[in-house]
Amino acid sequence: MADQPNVAQPTAKYRADYTAPDFTITDIDLVFDLQDTATRVVAVSQVKQQTQGVTSLELDGDDLVLRRLEINGESWPHYEETAEGLLIRQLPEAFELTIETEINPEANTALEGLYKSGGGFCTQCEAEGFRRITFYQDRPDVLARFTTKVIADKAKYPYLLSNGNKVASGELDNGRHWVQWQDPYPKPCYLFALVAGDFDVLRDNYKTVSGRDVALEIFVDKGNLDRAEHAMQSLINSMKWDEERFGLEYDLDIYMVVAVDFFNMGAMENKGLNIFNSKYVLANPATATDTDYLGIEAVIGHEYFHNWTGNRITCRDWFQLSLKEGLTVFRDQEFSSDLGSRPVNRINNVRVMRGPQFAEDRGPMSHPIRPEKVIEMNNFYTLTVYEKGSEVIRMMHTLLGEAGFQAGMKLYVERHDGTAATCDDFVLAMEEASGVDLSQFRLWYSQSGTPLVKVSTEYDADAKRYLVTVQQHTAPTAGQADKQPLHIPFDIELYDSKGQVIELQRNGEKIHHVLNVTESEQTFEFDQVHEQPVISMLREFSAPVVLEHDYSDQELVFLMTHARNEFARWDAGQMLLAKYIRSNVAAVQAGEEVVFPETVVDAFRGALLDEKLDPAFIAEMLTLPSENEVAGWYDLVDVDAIHAVLGQLEMLLATELEDELTAIYHSLKQTSYSIEHGAIAKRALRNRCLAYLALTAQGEKLVSAQYEAADNMTDTMAAMSAANEAQLACREWQMADFSDKWTHDGLVMDKWFILQGKNPAANALDNVRETMQHPAFSLKNPNRTRSLVASFCANNPVRFHAKDGSGYRFLTEILTALNTSNPQLASRLIEPFLKYRLYDEERQALMRAELEKLAGLDNLARDLFEKVEKALEQ
Ligand code: B3K
Ligand code: ZN
Predict the structure, then answer these.
(1) Predicted confidence (pLDDT) at residue 9 exceeds the cutoff of 90
(2) Does 268 sit in the ligand 1 pocket, CB within 6 Å?
(3) What is the fold of 453-562?
(4) What is the spatial distance between Cα 67 and Cα 549, in angstroms, rounded to a whole number?
(5) Is 90 exceeded by the pLDDT of residue 7?
(6) Taking 70 as the threshold, does the pLDDT of residue 657 lie above it?
(7) Is any atom of ligand 1 closer than 6 Å to the C-beta of 110?
(8) What CATH architecture applies to the domain 19-198?
(9) Catalytic positions, please?
(10) Which residue owns the Cα nearest ligand 1 atom 9?
(11) Where is each Peptidase M1 membrane alanine aminopeptidase domain found (predicted)?
C-alpha cells in the first residue's frame, strides 16, 4: 500500500528470526491492588542472564503507566521507555527486578490484559496481553513460577482468584481483603489469570486415577447456578477421558472455571483457572439448544486438555501455535466422538474444513498451519492453525494407528514436559516412537493451500486388474507461489456389485487401505478384482484435500447405500448434491430450469427411510451444503444463483418427500426433554424435517404449533429458524414473543440476533440497523456483535452483497467503530471483505473502495492493518 502514506507500518515478525531470550525469569511475585480506573500492579521478578555479556533487557509493555523501577531494591536510573515497552541497561548477571505499573481496567474495551466484565475483573493474556498488565518478557519461552496477591473491596469482590493453590488470605482496613495464590508449575505469562467478583459457585470434586482429590469449582453470575451443571459434568467427563485414552492426569488440587459475559473468543486455558465466554458454560433446557450443549462439552474438554498439550508443554514461540491448538482440537474432537456420535462429529468437522477453512486457504491471509510471518498474533488464531492443524495431527494418527500415535504422545510428554517446544519436536517424537517415516509429511507444516487430488480409474476385466491413478496439485496461494507434492494418506475401499468389500491385494500380498500418495502422479495397481468395482475414496476425509473424480450418479447412489462407514455414505450424498448444485447454477445463469432427477430424490428418500441409520446421521444426509461452502467451489461467485439453486433444491426435496417427512416428523415427537444422545438425534432429524416442511403448505401450521408446544430451546429455535428461512407469517409474532420473554438475557437474545442477521427478507439490512437499537444489543459485547453483525455479513450473502453496496458500507461503519474499541473483534468481522476478488467487477470495486477507506483511517489498528494490507496487495 505504497499509495497510503497515512498508514503507519507496524513491524512484522518472522519465524526464521527466532532467538532464545537473553534473560530468563525464574519467579515472579505479583500484587494487584484492584481499582476500576487505577489498578496498581507490583511485579517482583527474579531475572537471570542467559547470554553471557548481554547487559540490557527489553521488556514488552502496552498502555502502561510506569510508577516505580528498582533493581535489587534500589531505584534504577538506567532505562528508557520505548514504543514497544522498556529498555533497561547496565544490568548485573542475576537480579531482582521490581516494577510498579498503573492500569485502567475500566477503559479496557479491547478485552485484552486486565478488564472489567459486568461487575467483575478478569484477564485475557494470550497471545500478548500480559504486556498490558506489567512490563515483562511477554513471550511463551520464558517460564516462571507465579505468586499472585489480589487485593480488592470485599463486598463487591468476595471472590479473588488466580492460578494454582490458595496459600494465604486476610482482611484489610476500609472494607478491603486479599488472597494470595501460588502456581507450582512454571508457566509463560500468557497462561496467567486473575478474576475478582461476586458469583454463585457450583462445586464438585474428582479423584484422579492415582488418587489426587481435585476440587472443581464453576463460577457463574448470581442466579445462574442451574445453568452450570452441564459444564461440570463435561469437565468430569474430560478428566476421566484424558486418563483413559491418553493416560494424562490432572496435576493440581483445584480446577476453576469462571464464566464471563465479555470475552473475545470461546474460552482460555489459564493454568488451574479457565476463563470462559459464558456461552460455553451456561445451559439449561429452557435457554440452550442441543448444539449449545455439545459446544459446551467440546470447549470445556478443549480447555481441560490444554493442561497437558499447551500448559505443561507450551510453545517455544507463537509461530508454533498449532503445536498446542491443532493437537488440542484433535483431542477435543476425539473426546466428542468417543462420547457421542463419531460420524456426526466427523461430518461437522469436515464441513468446517470444506467451507471456511478452504476459503481461508484461497484468501489473502492464506498461511501454513505454522505461519512464517506475523504482524498481529491474534490474527493467527485461525481455522487453518486450529482445524487444519487438527487434520494434520489426525493424518499422523491415520499413518501411525492409535497405538503408534499414543507411543508418540508418551515420548513427546516425557521429552518436553515443563518446556516450550516446537512443531518439529512433536513430529520427531511421533516418528521416533513409531518408526514411521514422516520426512515428507513435515511439509504440511510449511506449505499452505488446499491440494486438489484428481483420481482416475481403469478396470481391465481380462487381467482382473484395477488401476487407480492419483494426481495431486496445490495451486499457488497468497505469499507462497511454489508448491511441492505432499504425503497424503489416501484411504480407499473397493466394493463389488453386491456391496461386499473387495480385498486390496497385488501379487498375492495384501495392501493396506490407506495408500501413501507422495508424488504428483502415482498409479496404484490391484489384482484379483473379479468385477468392475465401485471405489470409495478419501474415506473419513483422510486428508484435507479437494477430491475430484468423475463419479456417475449410479455409483454415488450405490455408495450412499452400500459404503461400510457412515461418513462415506454421507460424503457420497454430498458429491451427488454437488453435481446437481453445479449444473443447476449454470442452468439458472443461462435462464434455464432447475433439473433434479427422480433417482437422486429417491436416494435421499432411501436414506430418510432407513431405520438402521442413526436419526442424527440421517439429518446430516438431508442437509445441503451452505451457500458459503458452495461459493467456495467457484472462482467467480454468483451469490444470487447459488441462493436460488439451493432454495429450489430444498423446495423440490420438500415437495417430493413431503409424506415421508411428515410421517417421520410426527413419529419422532418426544414426551420429555433429555440431552442423552439418542434424544438429541431424534430432535435433530425431527427439526430437519420441520425445516423442509416449513416450505410446504403445512408449514405455517406445523411451525406455529411447534413454537407453541416447545418445552425446550432446541425445538423453539428450530421453529423460529424454519419460520425465518421460509419467511412464514408466524415469524413476526414468534420474534416478538421471544424478545418479550428474553430481553433481560443477552446470551439467549443472541439466538434472536442471529435470526435477524440471517433474515432472507429484502429489507434485512434495515432490520439489522433497527435491531442495533434493541435494549439487549451492545456493540461493546462481542457475543452480541458477532450474533447480529457477523451473521448478516458472513452468513447472509445475498443481502450482504446487495448490488447497491449498502451491506458493504454497513460493515465499514461497524469496523470503523470497533477499530478503536476492540480491534480483535473488528479483525474477525472483516473476513467477508477479504474475499472480494471472488465477486463480479462491480461488487469487487465496491468492496475494494471500502477496504481503501479502512486503509485510510488515521489510527488503523495493526489487527486490521495486516488484513487490509494483504487484501489490497496484488
Ligand atoms: N488459547 C485460547 C485462544 C486465545 C486467543 C487469543 N486471541 C483458547 C483456546 O484455543 O483454547
Ligand atoms: Zn485451544
Answers:
(1) no
(2) yes
(3) Immunoglobulin-like (2.60.40)
(4) 67
(5) no
(6) yes
(7) no
(8) Sandwich (2.60)
(9) 303
(10) 268
(11) 231-441
